[in-house]
Amino acid sequence: MYIQYRTLAATTICFALSLLALRKGILAYVSLTEAPPTSLIGCLQSIKGNKKSYLSIPSSPTYNNDRLGYNRNFVHKPSAIFHPASEADAVAAVVCAAAHNVSIAPRSGGHSYEGYSGGGKTASLVIDLNLFLQFAIDHDTGIATVGAGNRLGTLCTKLWKAGEYLIPAGSCPGVGIGGHALGGGLGIAGRKYGMLSDNIVGLTMVAANGNILEVNARSRPDLFWALRGAGGGSFGLVTEFRIQAYKAPARVTTMEVKYPWSVHQNVINAFGIWSKSVVDDFTGMLYIGQGKVRVLGTFLGSQEEAQTALKSLFTLTGLPQQTTFNESTWYQAAARWAEMEGANLEDPYTEHALAFRFRSLLYRQPISDSELAIISKHINNPPNNPDGQVTISVSLEIWGGKIDYPSSASAFDNHRGILYSIRYGVEWNVSSPDSDSICTECMEWNDHFAKELQAAYSSGQVLEAYQNYIERDIPNGLQAYYGDNLSRLIEIKKSVDPGNIFVFPQAIPLS
């Protein structure tokens, strides 16, 4: 019911591709020495570059599994899924899609909240960058070179083994670096080091015309600005990142503080006040669910320092039911956040099928009493799923600190000054990715919750929401995600993708 369809005007001619893909922004060369394929599939099958590149099409035995993203609530049917193993093959796939007027959906990890990494609709070409796993670090500058196929858990392991480095990325090990970094990248050390996007110092991008662009503050500064906050698939195919990494502190403390449900409204109020003044070494969230109220956090320092930072919260809330502190290395703390304590985050693992609908709002001041009442009402009245377990939750994730004051003057300037984001919604287990696995009551509960909370929104004149928690039906979504930057983003879109090849339902438009 949320899937949109688009009629694709297929061309009758496709170039057989023999590509000399040169870096530094030089257009890839297209040879016409072979008979042109007559379809997108034929065009993709003609790519004879890196032997590791591979193609998955609807007739392939791997296709049904390959097209699935993490969120089984939105399952799309791409025309094809191409996995390039080189920049030349990535260029070739982009040229094929452009020749056939087929929209492209880049995929790094497949964790888009609305399934946009699967196209967001039927008949897109998904270019999956899972084979771009390159990694290196310059020990003099601390700049890491990272392929767009790296997942956060794998990357955390590589950084740690390279010399106990960290980047301020998120905690879910299966999330791909691509969409996470291009949409902001709120992470578990963000208040100390800023958004992950703020720490990108350069990117390599395949543009719609086949050019390979090196993008940084000196080369294409407008595109550099746009990619680091609004670049999640709207402007081109980002294949590589250069990211500023940091030496991890000697000790890191993770914490969990539990309160009884009876005081959840008081804790929410106190958390908003406390968030304004907590030190930047603390990054954390308040989680409220069915009968659960917990403060979870990471402190870049010792347990004693972490306990000192929380004293002012306890003054506001009263003593909690239980407090748990774990002092460890950074890597152990990241594994604990990922619920993989004692494991290597680079170990293979399979994510179970999960369906969910989560949304977000951003607040510049603590939420109002009327909004607290709406949250309490919906948490106390969860939906029913006849087919399995339902989990509902609301998380208040602290922003501020270095997020408000990025070191780069060219940082994407949206959402600075946010006190916290609210991420709210429902998830349910599914046995299959088919449409009948949708929990109708869950979706209706989520829709009613969203409409009431958005109507009561007290933080400003217009809704603000976090683009990495994208939701298809939020009112005035592009305004909520990008604010006054939207007109500039549209002009940049026109300059690099005038044919609108990189498009999904909430992409930056041409007008």
Account of the 3D structure:
The chain has 511 residues and is of the alpha+beta class. It has four domains: 1-131, Uridine Diphospho-n-acetylenolpyruvylglucosamine Reductase, domain 3 (2-Layer Sandwich), CATH 3.30.465; 135-247, 2-Layer Sandwich (Uridine Diphospho-n-acetylenolpyruvylglucosamine Reductase, domain 3), CATH 3.30.465.10; 252-328, Dimeric alpha+beta barrel (Alpha-Beta Plaits); 354-487, Vanillyl-alcohol Oxidase, Chain A, domain 3 (3-Layer(aba) Sandwich), CATH 3.40.462. It is 26% helix and 21% strand. It contains 14 helices and 18 strands. The chain has helices at residues 40-45, 63-66, 87-99, 152-161, 177-182, 190-193, 221-230, 264-275, 303-317, 330-337, 369-379, 440-455, 477-482, 486-496; strands spanning 54-56, 80-83, 104-107, 125-128, 135-138, 143-147, 165-166, 200-206, 212-215, 237-244, 246-247, 252-259, 282-289, 292-299, 322-328, 354-363, 390-398, 420-429. The chain has a seven-stranded antiparallel sheet with strand order 15-12-14-13-17-18-16. It has a five-stranded antiparallel sheet with strand order 5-6-10-8-9. Helix 4 (152-161) runs antiparallel to helix 10, helix 8 packs across helix 9 and helix 11 packs antiparallel against helix 12 (440-455). The protein starts with 39 loop residues before the first helix and ends in a 15-residue tail after the last helix. Mean pLDDT is 89; it is low at 1-37.
